[in-house]
Amino acid sequence: MNSNEKYYFDNYPDTDIFYFTSDGYAFFNEHDANNHAGKLEDDEVRTIDRGTSWRHRRLSTLRFQGAPW
């Protein structure tokens, strides 16, 4: 977890998961993160929970695989 991600978890103690876009913005829900990431050159969204679990994905890859967004 980087310092930006730690900042959000420290300041929102009741939130267990955030969705981070490649430009560093944090979102409470995946849909909003996907919408924002779709406007960026790097459309990666990182899903990070309060524990150590996280995952990366790129919208461009999901679109290619037939995802609905």
Structure write-up:
- The protein is an alpha+beta fold.
- The protein has one domain (3-64).
- The chain has three helices and four strands; from the N terminus they run αββαββα.
- The chain has helices at residues 3-11, 30-37, 59-64, and strands at 17-21, 26-27, 44-49, 54-58.
- Strands 2-1-3-4 form a four-stranded antiparallel beta sheet, sandwiched between helices.
- A hairpin with a 4-residue loop joins strand 1 and strand 2 (26-27).
- The chain starts with a helix and ends in a 5-residue tail after the last helix.
- The model has no long low-confidence stretch (mean pLDDT 82).
> How many β strands by DSSP?
4
Which structural category fits the helices and strands? alpha+beta
What is the average of the pLDDT values?
A: 82
> Helical content, roughly?
25-40%
Shape: globular
Strand adjacency order, main sheet:
2-1-3-4
Distance between the termini: 27 Å
Radius of gyration of CA atoms, rounded to a whole number = 12 Å
Beta-strand portion reads: 25-35%
Discrete helix count: 3
Q: Ranges with pLDDT <50 over ≥5 residues?
A: none
Q: How do the helices and strands follow one another from N- to C-terminus?
A: HEEHEEH
Number of domains in the coordinates?
Answer: 1
Major sheet: size, sense and barrel closure?
4 strands, antiparallel
